[in-house]
């Protein structure tokens, strides 16, 4: 090795989630057809139980610019509060028509990402507590070494939110609002808006999972 010793070698720097996140994880959005099955943002194509909703938002960097090369994944319980996974130990049958997991890339022009899904039910928490309806969300983008995990709660579940152990673990109450999606009715559909701020005064609460 031309005089090099093993101890002279250093660890290769870690890669960030970029610069072309969608090519590796959502190639169909970039017009590249390589996967037999493409994961997407539509979790209701098989007509699951529950109230259909649209979850949408943008991811903003530290100076307020929306990221347009960003990937968002969600994982949630069905309308009855059951995860479609063997890790769910409630002893209940999950909705067979609901996969519970989705992947979406931001629009290349606007940075808006969205999911067609259902509003989840409440799920048990630790020590006999009940968690408010929520959606688990992770973000991959340029400049981010590890995915950022957070949760989406719903503003029209105010009573359940006050009882949620994760929300209550956030000591400064105003910070809890960064996890609350805003509800609106749009052309007969229920839409929840959830914007994510990586840094700054509006920085979203991220979870160490």
Structure description:
It is built from four helices and eleven strands, in the order αββββββββαααβββ. The protein has 209 residues and is mainly beta. A hairpin with a 5-residue loop joins β5 and β6.
Task: Give the CA-CA distance, first to last residue.
Answer: 41 Å
Count of DSSP-assigned helices: 4
The overall average pLDDT, rounded, is: 86
Q: Helix and strand succession?
A: HEEEEEEEEHHHEEE
Shape: globular
* Proportion of strand residues: 25-35%
How many whole angstroms does the radius of gyration measure?
A: 19 Å
Number-wise, the strands total 11
Q: Tell me roughly what share of residues is in helical segments.
A: under 10%
Model regions low in confidence, pLDDT < 50 over at least 5 residues: none
Major sheet: 9 strands, mixed
What structural category characterises the helix and strand content? mainly beta
Short structural summary:
The protein has 209 residues and is mostly beta strands.
List the keywords.
209 residues, nine-stranded mixed sheet, mainly beta, 11 strands, globular, 9% helix, two-stranded antiparallel ribbon
Blueprint (SSEs and pairs):
Layout: H1 21-25, E1 52-60, E2 70-75, E3 101-105, E4 112-118, E5 123-124, E6 130-131, E7 134-141, E8 148-154, H2 158-163, H3 165-168, H4 173-176, E9 180-186, E10 189-193, E11 196-197
Parallel strand pairs: 1-10, 1-11, 8-9
Antiparallel strand pairs: 1-4, 2-3, 2-7, 5-6, 7-8, 9-10
